[in-house]
Amino acid sequence: MTTTGRRTLLTAGASAAAAALTGCTSDGAGPRRPSPAEEAAAREAERVARAEAALRRRAADASRTLLERYDAALAAHPALRTRVAPLRAAAAAHVRALSEGDRPAPSPSAASGTAAPAASTAPAAPRPAPADPAAALRELAAAARTASGAHTAELLAAPPEYARLLASVAAAGAAHAYLLTEGARA
Amino acid sequence: MSALDAAQAALAAEHAAVYGYGVVGGRVAEERRAEATAAYEAHRARRDALRRTVRDLGGTPAVAAAAYELPFRVADPAGAVRLAAVLEDRVAGVYSDLVRASGGALRGEAAAALREAAVRAVRWRGSDVPFPGLAERAS
């Protein structure tokens, strides 16, 4: 809702900028030069949109980091699957929800390649999980708390609907940390 | 939804939770009674804080109903635990709306209340929901 509003503002800013480009030669009949107030509003809208995009990236990255820890723990400790796999699935859903609408889906041809275009862009292999299963669970709980704290911090400056999502994801992270430490029966 | 409307909705849900935990406390097994009491106290504290919030926002705090219809009949300790989990789910839902409708310190408080409700819900239920408080993402 607010995102759409901002997008509309951005579009308005872009057309105002276009008007500025063509408007200087004409007087009266042609497109009008945007007023300083309009230019300032367009700049402000762009600044807000950039800050919001950065916030969304940070929030999704926090969940992605947690997801990598789940994957590392599951790779090292298949016996933990029953307990950890549902939480890992939730973390994956968090990553998806937090990055919804971030960027257009890559075109099929570009996405189908298995090799990354440049080796240097390949992500570093994630750190392995602790060899001891109990230590691996403790590490996961700490990672869930860290992500929950990051989402809680980000939600204060987030637009309303995204703040609601972040609050939910942060709450889920806190609940997962509980299940990973004390909720041994789950 | 204005911040005031969302705060009133949260207050109404906390009234219902306080009532509901009265029922939970009467039926829950002995070994979980302390947990029920702690939750009851937590909801009373949140209810009192929300009364102040509503006044600060210029409203008249919603009052509790004399009685609330329970979602199902609570006849035994297992039913009490199920009810407690439902109470927490409902509270989580109104706090997520309050997060959306508010800013600043009130948003922070709403997020903290949502987190606490989600943790209590998994304690009662023993399993998680991926998106606490977001009915549209429940599946």
Description of the molecule:
The complex is a heterodimer of chains A (186) and B (139). Chain A has 186 residues and is mostly helical. Chain A has one domain (2-21, 36-100, 131-181). Chain A has helices at 2-23, 36-76, 81-98, 108-112, 133-155, 160-181. By secondary structure, chain B is mostly helical. Chain B has 4 helices and no strands. Chain B has helices at residues 3-27, 33-56, 77-101, 104-125. The longest helix of chain B has 25 residues, at 3-27. The A-B interface holds A 86-87, 89-90, 93-94, 97, 148, 152, 155-156, 160-161, 163-172, 174-176, 178-179, 183, 185-186 and B 92, 95-97, 99-101, 103-104, 107-108, 110-111, 114-115, 117-119, 121-123, 126-134, 137.
Estimated helix fraction of chain B: 55-70%
* Cα-based radius of gyration of chain B, to the nearest Å: 15 Å
Percent helix of chain A: over 70%
Output mean pLDDT of chain B.
96
CATH hierarchy: architecture of chain B: Up-down Bundle
How much of the sequence lies in strands of chain B comes to under 5%
Order of helices and strands of chain B: HHHH
Largest interface: A-B, 31 and 31 residues
Low-confidence stretches of chain B: none
Beta-strand percent range of chain A = under 5%
The first-to-last residue Cα distance of chain A is: 38 Å
Cα-atom Rg of chain A, whole angstroms? Answer: 22 Å
CATH class of chain B: Mainly Alpha
**CATH topology label of chain B:** Ferritin
Protein name (chain A): Lipoprotein
Organism (chain A): Streptomyces filamentosus (Streptomyces roseosporus)
Protein name (chain B): DUF4439 domain-containing protein
Pfam family, one (chain B): DUF4439
